[in-house]
Write a structure and sequence with these properties.
alpha+beta, 4 helices, RBD_domain_sf
Length: 127
C-alpha cells in the first residue's frame, strides 16, 4: 500500500456534493411549496437571544463560513433571535442551509430558510 494518496482520492468531490445538495433541494421544494425561491441571503431564526449581538454575529460568521464566503450578517436589537446571512452565491447559501438546518447553536436548534428578499447591498451590486 502506498504511503500517500493522490489528491482527491477518498473524498467526495465538490461537484458530487453539489449534485447531492441540488437533489435534496428539489425534494424539499416538492414537500414545502410555500418556501421562498433560492437566494444567496438566508433568514436565520431561533437564535439564542441571551447572547450579545457582537458575539452572535462573530459566531454566525464562523458557523456559515465553512460553506462559503460570508459577505454580510445583519442583526439588530429589535430582531432578537434572528439574523440575515448573505453568502457569495446561491449554491453556497443552499449548501449552508441544508447542512446547518437544525444544528445546535448556543444551545438552540437553528432554523434556516431563504430570505423572501435580497439584502440591499446585493441589489446594489447587481445594478
Amino acid at each position: 500500500m502506498a504511503a500517500s494518496k493522490r489528491h482527491g482520492e477518498g473524498t467526495i468531490s465538490s461537484e458530487k456534493k453539489l449534485d447531492s445538495v441540488v437533489k435534496r433541494q428539489r425534494i424539499q421544494e416538492e414537500n414545502s411549496p410555500g418556501e421562498p425561491s433560492p437566494k444567496n441571503t438566508l433568514y436565520v431564526h431561533n437564535l439564542n437571544d441571551k447572547v450579545r449581538i457582537k458575539t452572535m454575529r462573530e459566531n454566525l460568521y464562523l458557523f456559515f463560513s465553512t460553506y462559503g464566503e460570508v459577505l454580510q450578517i445583519s442583526m439588530s436589537p429589535k430582531l432578537r433571535g434572528q439574523a440575515f446571512v448573505v453568502l457569495r452565491s446561491v449554491d453556497e447559501a443552499n449548501l449552508a442551509r441544508l447542512s446547518l438546518q437544525g444544528d445546535q447553536f448556543f444551545g438552540k436548534p437553528v432554523h434556516i430558510q431563504f430570505s423572501k428578499h435580497n439584502t440591499k447591498s446585493i441589489i446594489d451590486e447587481q445594478a
